[in-house]
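re: that complex we talked abt at group meeting.

here r the seqs, copy pasted straight from the sheet so there may be weird spacing, ignore it
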Amino acid sequence: MIRLSGVTKTYPRAKQPALEGITVNIPAGQFVFLVGASGSGKTTLLRLLLRAEEPSAGRIEVAGRDLAGLSRRRLARARRQIGCVFQDFRLLSDRTVAQNVTFALDVTGRSRRAARTAVPEILELVGLADKGGRYPEQLSGGEQQRAALARAMVARPPLLLADEPTGNLDPATGAGIVHLLERINEAGTTVVMATHNAAHVDALRRRVLELDAGVLVRDHPSGAYSPPSRVPVLGAWAS
Amino acid sequence: MRPRALLTALMATLRRNLVMVGAVVVTATICLALLGAGLLLRAQVHTVNTFLLGQVEVVVDLTDDATGPQVRALESDLRAEPVVTSVGYESKQATFDRFRRDFHDSPAILSGVAPGDLPATLRVALTDPRRSSDIVSDYTGRAGVESVRDDRAVLAPLYRVLRGFTIGAFTLALLQATAMLALIYTLVRASAHSRRRETAIMRLVGATDAAIRAPFILESGLAGLAGGLLAGACLVGLKAFLVDGALAGETAFPLIGWDAVWRGVITVAVAGAVAGALTAGFALRRHLRV
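got the structure back, here u go
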């Protein structure tokens, strides 16, 4: 689903590259956690996958397409294969939940009839079936993130990118969102989730990619948030 | 993007920028009304020209002592000129009769002129009255010729006034156009800023560049079109109340017809819509990331 070969990204006027020599392959259907400290390059990597940024070097393939070679029109079509959610939800405040979700179908030319069936289905999936008529400000943080997930998934993309989706949520609500992502993944969607939350990573034990200062330092098929050598040992502190 | 979704986006952006859109419409109306007035004045010059094409003649006044052979030589030479379509001899009596006809409602002028006072003439019709100066310069001073008069020269001040007004209207329209384009540019920039969250989401979910730009281009295109239609209404008013009303009985020349007015209306409406849409497209290139 995603193939990166020697991808480097250096922002203009930056001394250090934000990403350096990243080579990784993520097959379809995987659930991948992208971990690392703030500034380690997680968001840059997700932006490269959307071609919101161009790599300085290397090759990026998403769903079998080399992103660098896409025309503007083909890029727009390629983005329809990718759902995105963010820490700050990015919902339109002057539209209801259902209208926010429908918006994603409307602006990509999907028919009204398609929207009439797809929107209630996805709202049901994310647990907002009875809240489609509410405005974002009338929802809790967790519900807003569910609405954002519904918008990201309404066109049933095969890939979902989640950039710190639980960053603004309390632990229990965050766990609910991760559970929802797990269900989305079980239905066949590849999920790449950037996170700081060790509990979510440790609970699921899925593939972990760890970035450190733009370099991929760990790729574990069912890892924890921190590698074993760096897990604090409480007993050692106590002694 | 579905048309209904486009309409919703358009209505939302129009509501949000109502005051600015209003300003664009007013400026566009003034600019395009001036452009339209310039077009109508140009049409008026053309109308007068067409009218005069069949009317204006070069008149060769003959001296009283011009001999028959001299007059015949002049006639045959004039006929040989490529710009001349016809040459007609008018005796002193015929010239006096024409004078009486032309000034029949001015007895004061008629009373001071006797049949012998006016010269016999050769009246020369031309294919193009604008080329009369060649005839005037070639035949002035020839044997039997008193003077050569160009009717069109009499109308030169009228042409100057019409041309002056036309250039003035176009210049003002140009100045106003810079204000209109600057306003549209600012409108689109403000609009793009206020809708940046929406356009960012559109990009993410895979909307095409055209779908992202369409509401902005439609917004300013419609504002330009509204200005154009209002300017068109001004032109219709000008024709109905000024040309057909106040000026109708005041001039011997034909005035512009409705066909010229409708051409003007269509031109300003299309110019408004196209200028709005093109300026928006230009502004979006700089202020909207797609």
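couple things i noticed - Confidence is low (pLDDT under 50) at residues 233-239 of chain A. Chain A touches chain B at residues 50, 52, 72-73, 76-82, 84, 90, 92, 94, 103-104, 106-112, 151, 155 (CB under 8 Å).
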